[in-house]
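S.,

Sequence below, as promised.
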Amino acid sequence: MNGPYETELEAIKAARIWETQGQTMPSASLTMLIEACSDSGLRLGAYDTLTLEWLAGHDQPQRCAVVAGLIERAYEAGKAGR
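The prediction came back faster than expected:
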């Protein structure tokens, strides 16, 4: 679910997984972003969270899926030493 995404449709499908878990947008988008950060071991500050809330509330869910995927993939690449 974390990409890489070659098309917008792939990202839309990833974002819809969160919707099917009973969450509504932008709540699902925010959860997706916060969980990506949390799973990657990032500690979020108040302004970090505010920015994620802005992104979740003012952008398309598929873009949040891409950002969450980037966070997750960067974390995995770091662990692998790439």
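The mean pLDDT is 89.

Coffee later?
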